[in-house]
Design goal:
Structural class: alpha/beta
Strand order of the largest sheet: 3-2-1-4-5-9-8
Number of helices: 6
Distance between the termini: 16 Å
Number of strands: 9
Number of domains: 1
Order of helices and strands: HHEHEHEEHEEEHEE
Length: 217
């Protein structure tokens, strides 16, 4: 069942990125804000950053240009291919990983884990547990997790899929085993066709414990 769900997710997102231009997707940004500002506030240049669900965002290229050690993970190879092209000559400095993050057992160690608009698509409890466990395993003690998701007044669906919406209390519970909420903020994203969407951003710090959440509960 887990493999079937992963395959279905991969097929969905591969189709999206094969058939839609960037400005035909609601999540597209010309500039990756507030993500890039939050990353720079948490981490000095040279730090190790993983962008989970990076899609075709310009974030990876901009961070690589500023001296960060960047890894991008996305379930769609079509998205990764387009992101490589967008990054230009900087693509060689970036590690690219095509994978479903809920199926990965090891991704390496990072100082900061970033996710804008991927986690909120995980509506199954076990998928969220696996995601949180990998984040806790991947981020070094004292490191950070910067996560952007739809806020409580945000859309209930995106790209034809249901989503989870978040606030401080709900995100703190989701990552309680391994992270402590440091700050949060609301951000209004304007889609390419001018529609406002409420996003909730959380900055969480990795606690000293290396024990991540148990899966399968």
């Amino acid at each position: 069942m887990e493999h079937e769900q992963s395959s279905s997710r991969a097929a969905h997102w591969q189709s999206v990125y094969e058939h839609k231009a960037d400005r035909e997707t609601s999540w597209f940004q010309d500039e990756p804000v507030p993500s890039i500002d939050l990353v720079r506030c948490c981490l000095p240049r040279g730090g190790r950053v993983v962008d989970v669900g990076g899609g075709t965002s310009a974030l990876a290229g901009q961070l690589a240009q500023q001296g960060f050690d960047v890894t991008v993970v996305d379930i769609s190879s079509a998205a990764i291919d387009r992101a490589r092209i967008r990054a230009g000559h900087l693509a060689e400095r970036i590690r690219w990983v095509v994978a479903d993050v809920t199926s990965l057992h090891d991704l390496g160690e990072f100082d900061l884990w970033h996710d804008r608009a991927a986690f909120h698509f995980l509506t199954a409890h076990d998928d969220r547990l696996r995601y949180a466990a990998l984040a806790a395993k991947s981020v070094v003690p004292g490191g950070h997790l910067v996560l952007g998701a739809f806020g409580t007044n945000g859309p209930e669906q995106c790209s034809g899929l249901p989503v989870e919406r978040y606030d401080e209390a709900k995100i703190a519970v989701a990552f309680a085993d391994g992270f402590a909420l440091a700050r949060s903020l609301s951000h209004t994203h304007i889609t390419p066709w001018g529609k406002p969407q409420e996003f909730f951003y959380a900055v969480m710090q990795r606690t000293d414990s290396k024990a991540g959440p148990e899966t399968g509960r």
